[in-house]
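W.,

You were right to be curious about this one. When I first looked at the sequence I had no strong expectations either way, so I just let the prediction run and decided to look at it fresh. Below is the sequence, 410 residues in total, followed by the output.
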Amino acid sequence: MMVLNCKFKDFSMSFKTFIILFFVVTLPAVHAWPNDVPSVTEIPVSAEVDTGLDYLLARVGANSSGDFDIRSIEPVMAFIQSVKSPYARYHMKNKPDMSSVFYQFDVRSNLRRILDVGYHPDIPSFILSPSSVRLSYWKSIDGKQQPLPRLSENLSGLDNNSIMVKGVEHEEITPDQFTGTYYAYELDRTLILTRYNGRNMLISIARQENLSEVGKKGLVVGKDENWNYLYSNDKGLNKPGLGWVSSYMYGANSVMILEEIDSKKPWVRCSMFKWLRAGWSGINMVQNHHIYSGMERFGTTFQKIMDNPSLPSHDEMVDVFVRIQNLTRDELQNKTQLYFSQLLEKYGRDSSEAGKFITGLMKDNTYLSQMTVAQMRSILELEYIKLIMGKTRIINISDVIPVSSEKGVG
C-alpha cells in the first residue's frame, strides 16, 4: 500500500482507476496450475444454450411465466451431459455488465437424499453450503408465508408432471476470502422438480431482487475449510486502506441443475450457471475466475457433506434444528454469549487478526443486542453441522441443544 503515499506526477489516473487496478493485480487466481499443465481456456457456451438459460430465468419471480416445457432446455441438457476438457472454463452470454461462468461436480448420493437434507422445510437451506452462505430462509412460498413443501414426496409422480415452487429467500453470505466483505440480499427463487429422459431432476433458478445491503466487514478465521467466520456491522472492506469502500452486489442470477444419473450407485450431477455483478461506484469488479472460485468453494463443501457416510438421517437432523428454531430470543442471546465467550477465551489474548476482530466486537454488548434471531440461530446451526462433519467446534453443541451423541469430535 506504499503506492497510496506516492505523489503522482500525472493525475490522469484517478483514484478510482487505481483501486480497480489494485484489485485486478491482487485478487488471487483460482488455480495454481503445475508448469506442465496447459492454462485454462475461456470458452463461451452456444447461443442455443444461452437461449435455454434465458427460458429458465424467465420462470423466476411472482409475475413470471408459470409454464415449463422440458423441451425448451434440451440444448442446456445436451451441454451439461457432454464431455468437457478439464482445462476449459465455460461462460455464458453476459447480462448487462455481468460476469458469468459454468461449474460442474458429481455427488455420491441419490436425489431423494439431497432433497430430504437440503430442501426440507425444517432444515436450514444453507446446510449444504456453510462455507458460502451464513444463513438463508424462505420469506414466502407461492406468495404466502408458508413452509417449503416436502419435494422428495413428489418424486414418484413425475412421469407426466413437473412440480414448480416459487418463493422469496433472504440470504447472507460468508466473508469473501480476500476482501473479508459479506453481503445480505433477497432472491426470487423457483424450484422445478421434473424428469428428463427417465432421470429425476431438480432445477433451482434464482435472481437477486434488488441492490444488496452495503457490504460489511467480516473475517475468515484460520483455514476456510474450518468454517469459522466472524461478522461485524461495520461497512467496508476488511483490507488495510480500503475500509471506507461502500460495496454492493448489484445483481446475480443462477441456474443449478441436479440430475440423478443413477439412483442405485448412487450418483447425482450438479451443473451450475452463475452471473454476478458486484463492486462499488457502479463498477463491476467481478471477473469470471472470481465466480468460479466461489462456485468451487460451494461445490467442494456440498460434495463433502452429501458424501459423508456418517451424515445422520434427515429425521435426526430435523429434531436438532427444530429445537434450535424453538429457542426464544433470550435463550438464543444466552447461548450466543457463550459462543462469543469461547471465542474470546481462544483468541482474545493474542494480537492476531482474529483476536483484534473479536475484541472489537465484544468491547460492549452492542453487537450481540443488534443480532437478529436468524443470525443467532445460524451460529448454533453451523456448530451442529461442524459436529456432523467431525470439525472442531467453538462450543459443544450438546451443551446447548441435546443431541443423540457428540460424534465426529474434531
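Here's what jumped out at me. DSSP finds ten helices and 13 strands in the chain. And, maybe more interesting for your project: The chain has two domains: 40-307, 325-399.

Coffee later to discuss?

I.
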